[in-house]
């Protein structure tokens, strides 16, 4: 029964991925065969050579496909590569006898493949081997999560994106930048909720990927709460192997810079993304050098800077980014629609960041007090999905990476 379950997981994942990447699925299949075969050599005398070769193949394929002379980087490759590198390194550090089918399920698991969360193979396989007993109670939580994910993506994010355009100047441009940063968060947050929900439907608990990042009081805190699984991946497989916190201040600064440059390049091989990564590294280094602990006022500064830097994900070059900054200094009469958009975005952030809201989304309790709060709020969100969803389509921003 377990083998049948695992086979269905893999076949459905390959089917979903094929619908999006077409012939590129052959590349994924070839690479997965290499990873599976390589995992069998781990623990032998050739293990280090195998690890280095596999990582070189995965990284070189990324740069080849991302280069101007290359083809198009297929959707899902980044998460596939991160998962594969994690698997190979974990096997080298502590070999586990996973079956080929278990490895294939881990690499291709479709709820996470397009934009994460990036889970770890040990936890995934443990759940994959567990007994699955579907019940109506187990269906309720993922359905409820999808209701909230639809609200965050199709009602909030997509409508805020519409308000963000190149026609604004002055305070209107500031509002547009703010709306874009909030929309960007809800877009990615919604995808992560969908991924966790579909994972639960298939019997797999994926890790949560956001922890109220815009409530952070320092940039260090922000990177512990934004895209949590990518952050922990970079920490475990780049930052700590380079020495972590147990090195000189000069070497630490270089390592932080390297980590953020790697993160930036993995998003895109372009100057705006590299500037984004270097800027965040400088901000973290400055915080440590000045021993900034953070408070609500500094947290507001962190919020504004992070919002502004997301503009580097939406421009064609540094010139475009500078042009948007210049537009902020120019006068334009207040546009009521963008002001309303800012008000709605801040209200949506307040609602999403409440611990009670996150409890409703990700958990279910049998207490009467909890149910009296959960049912009406979920019902209202469901009605808003029906009435206000803005042309629902699979166009999540982070699926570009």
Automatic annotation (TrEMBL):
GO molecular function, one term: acyltransferase activity
Protein name: MBOAT, membrane-bound O-acyltransferase family
Family the entry assigns: Belongs to the membrane-bound acyltransferase family.
Keyword Iron-sulfur tagged: no
Pfam family for this entry, one: MBOAT
TM spans (from-to): 12-37, 71-89, 101-119, 139-156, 177-198, 256-285, 297-313, 333-351, 371-389
Cell compartment(s), UniProt: Cell membrane
Keyword Ligase: no
A single cellular component GO annotation: plasma membrane
Location (main, coarse): membrane
InterPro entries, A to Z: Ac/AlaTfrase_AlgI/DltB, MB_O-acyltransferase, MBOAT_fam
Organism: Bacteroides faecichinchillae
Keywords linked to the UniProt accession: Acyltransferase, Cell membrane, Membrane, Transferase, Transmembrane, Transmembrane helix
Record's bilayer topology term: Multi-pass membrane protein
């Amino acid at each position: 029964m377990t083998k049948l379950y695992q086979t269905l997981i893999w076949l459905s994942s390959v089917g979903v991925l094929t619908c999006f990447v077409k012939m590129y699925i052959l590349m994924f299949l070839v690479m997965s065969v290499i990873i599976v075969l390589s995992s069998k050599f781990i623990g032998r005398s050739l293990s280090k050579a195998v690890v280095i070769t596999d990582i070189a193949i995965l990284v070189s394929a990324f740069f080849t496909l991302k280069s101007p002379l290359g083809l198009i980087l297929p959707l899902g490759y980044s998460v596939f590569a991160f998962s594969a590198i994690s698997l190979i390194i974990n096997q080298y550090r502590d070999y586990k006898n996973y079956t080929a089918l278990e490895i294939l399920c881990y690499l291709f698991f479709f709820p996470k493949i397009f934009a994460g969360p990036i889970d770890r193979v040990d936890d995934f396989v443990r759940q994959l081997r567990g007994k699955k007993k579907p019940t109506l109670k187990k269906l309720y939580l993922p359905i409820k999560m999808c209701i909230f994910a639809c609200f965050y993506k199709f009602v909030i994010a997509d409508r805020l994106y519409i308000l963000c355009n190149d026609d604004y100047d002055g305070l209107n441009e500031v509002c547009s930048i703010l709306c874009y940063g909030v929309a960007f968060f809800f877009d990615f947050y919604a995808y992560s909720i969908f991924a966790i929900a579909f994972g639960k439907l298939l019997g797999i608990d994926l890790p949560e990927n956001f922890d109220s990042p815009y409530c952070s009081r320092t940039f260090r805190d922000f990177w512990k709460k934004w895209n949590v699984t990518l952050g922990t991946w970079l920490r475990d497989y780049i930052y700590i192997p380079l020495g972590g916190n147990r090195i000189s201040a000069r070497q630490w600064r270089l390592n932080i810079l390297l980590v953020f440059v790697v993160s930036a390049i993995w998003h895109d091989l372009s100057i705006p993304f590299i500037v984004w990564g270097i800027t965040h590294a400088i901000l973290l280094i400055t915080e440590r050098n000045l021993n900034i602990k953070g408070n609500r006022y500094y947290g507001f500064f962190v919020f504004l800077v992070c919002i502004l830097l997301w503009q580097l994900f939406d421009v064609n070059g540094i010139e475009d980014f500078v042009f948007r900054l210049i537009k902020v200094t120019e006068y334009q009469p207040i546009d009521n629609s963008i002001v309303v958009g800012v008000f709605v975005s801040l209200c949506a952030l307040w609602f999403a960041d409440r611990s009670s809201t996150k409890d409703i989304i990700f958990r279910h309790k049998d207490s009467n007090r909890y149910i009296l709060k959960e049912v009406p709020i979920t019902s209202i969100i469901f009605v808003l999905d029906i009435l206000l969803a803005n042309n629902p389509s699979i166009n999540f921003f982070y699926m570009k990476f």
